[in-house]
Amino acid sequence: QKEVEQDPGPLSVPEGAIVSLNCTYSNSAFQYFMWYRQYSRKGPELLMYTYSSGNKEDGRFTAQVDKSSKYISLFIRDSQPSDSATYLCAMNAGGTSYGKLTFGQGTILTVHP
Amino acid sequence: GAVVSQHPSRVICKSGTSVKIECRSLDFQATTMFWYRQFPKQSLMLMATSNEGSKATYEQGVEKDKFLINHASLTLSTLTVTSAHPEDSSFYICSASRTGRDTQYFGPGTRLTVL
Fold first, then answer.
1. Which of A53, A49, A21 has the alpha carbon at shortest distance from A34?
2. Which of residues 43-62 of B touch A (CB under 8 A)?
3. Per residue of chain B (115 residues), what is the pLDDT tens digit?
């Protein structure tokens, strides 16, 4: 079993839809949770960064962390064609992990006009 | 802020040659830098972690003599692929983290093609 599971999709939605992306994990030591967006042939771009459980909102993006269920989500409101990309969840245990991230497989999202 | 650059963005080389890829943090000091490789439609695979002024820590299965990493300063790390072969063709991405923080900022990647 992988430490981080993420449905690779692909996920296709119409413009304006609400998108829900999810990851589950098995390592209870994870404390820091990130979402990255990666366009084709580019490096990942940090979207959201949260610590421990709770919600965080930034514009059209909302990240949720439920440590009791070992489940994290990223919601995209009013999705746009420019949101079409691969979304990677990542997490680490902090402390002596020296920032080493464990990634999900990535979900390919297409938002069509 | 938190911009990471990589050079070159693409490189094509002949089998048996060595290739050096640079990773720079442009507007912050990066105590730790990471090197990943990524195959098409797959997630990132961590190759090694390097801290400024010390030897890199390689992940299991990564040949340290083939992938030489030098983290000479707080803003520069280099990855040298020695005696490259076609199977080394991949997308190589570096990332950097700031002192005391546990997230990473990624470079734009370098596409290596070995003929």
1. A49
2. 43-44, 46, 49, 51
3. 689 999 999 999 999 999 999 999 998 888 889 999 998 888 889 999 998 888 899 999 999 999 999 988 889 999 999 999 999 999 999 999 876 666 788 999 999 999 9
